[in-house]
TrEMBL record:
Residues 1-25 form the signal peptide. It comes from the Bacteria. This is TRAP transporter substrate-binding protein. It comes from Halomonas salifodinae. SUPFAM superfamilies: Periplasmic binding protein-like II. InterPro entries: DctP_fam, TRAP_DctP_sf. Keywords: Signal.
């Protein structure tokens, strides 16, 4: 009888253990706007594998690329409601809600891709993430990036005057819109999957894009003039829903934070490693390449500063950090 009672007690304990693990186990959902072939989506898959492995199979992550869950504004709403757990986001929607993040898009804030990565890894950039839970309901765990911004156009752009009235596809957020308005262009927000056809049918005259997307999605087939300007960096932020974060214990928070930040940083490494080679690949296409610097956009830069300096309080701090990192 005693032996039977012992066996029953052990069985109940085992059952309770399984129940506890099951209650804690999660199948998280992570959304992105990038296609499956893009490095952001690939590293999202890598994060899912890492979290599953490090949690001993307890947690899994289902990845939804290519706007399967909606555009970024819609995904931010889902994150705030807790119906979406995680996302890799451009800072577009974040900067629309927290103007300080717009400072990261200051024209010519950084000199090149390595300088951009160093600034995003700085203490100042990390400090900015602390404002996200209170102001957006999201928890930012780390930065990634896309490449430095260039201009690809259907017609040649030989001077800043050629931007006048040009319909330039942009990611829909204020800092980049204000830059192109200041340059005299007509910024035209479009989702990434619509860009190729928009160039083909003349809906847009040019696009603001990085090397990787230009080559990966073959936009040069529809626009054969490339202005290499490196005029802005393009940060990404890895986020978790604040509602979901509040349901996690400290161990799971640290597990997720570590794995997600690691794969976001892998994205920066990827762009650093391949940026120059991608540029050379594009130079090898049958396109016209023009290289320009800050002087090309001088008036637009000054106008952008006049708009953003009063509302992006981190702008001088980022400039100071960028200057130190450039030394």
């Amino acid at each position: 009888m005693t032996k039977l009672k012992t066996l029953m007690t052990a069985a109940v304990a085992a059952s309770l253990t399984v129940t506890a693990v099951t209650a804690q186990a999660r199948d998280f959902r992570l959304g992105l706007v990038t296609p499956q072939s893009h490095i952001w989506s690939q590293e999202a898959e890598g994060f899912a594998e890492t979290l599953n492995e490090r949690s001993g199979g307890e947690h899994s992550v289902s990845i939804f690329p290519a706007q399967q869950l909606g555009n970024e504004a819609q995904m931010v709403q889902q994150l705030q409601a807790g119906s979406l757990d995680m996302a890799f986001l451009t800072l577009a929607e974040i900067s629309n809600r927290i103007p300080d993040f717009g400072a990261l898009y200051a024209p010519f804030l950084v000199e090149d891709i390595d300088h951009a990565a160093a600034l995003l890894r700085s203490e100042v950039a990390a400090e900015m993430l602390e404002a996200m839970p209170g102001q957006t309901g999201l928890v930012g765990v780390g930065y990634g990036m896309a490449g430095m911004r260039q201009i690809l156009s259907r017609q040649p752009i030989d001077s800043a005057d050629d931007l006048s009235g040009l319909k330039v596809r942009i990611t829909p957020f204020d800092p980049i819109r204000d830059f192109y308005v200041a340059a005299g262009a007509a910024p035209t927000p479009l989702p990434l999957p619509a860009v190729y056809d928009a160039l083909a049918n003349g809906q847009v005259d040019a696009i603001d894009m990085d090397y990787d997307s230009i080559r990966l999605l073959e936009f040069y087939e529809q626009a054969d003039n490339l202005v290499i300007s490196n005029h802005m960096m393009f940060p990404m932020v890895a986020v978790v829903s604040g509602r979901v974060w509040g349901q996690l214990d400290n161990a799971d928070r640290e597990l997720i934070r570590g794995a997600m930040a690691e794969h976001a940083d892998n994205i920066m490494n990827h762009f650093q490693e391949h940026h120059e080679a991608w540029g050379e690949e594009l130079r090898g296409q049958d396109i016209t390449v023009t290289e320009v610097g800050p002087d090309f956009f001088a008036d637009a830069i000054a106008e952008w500063e006049a708009i953003w300096a009063p509302k992006a309080t981190y702008l001088p701090l980022l400039r100071e950090a960028a200057a130190e990192l450039a030394d």
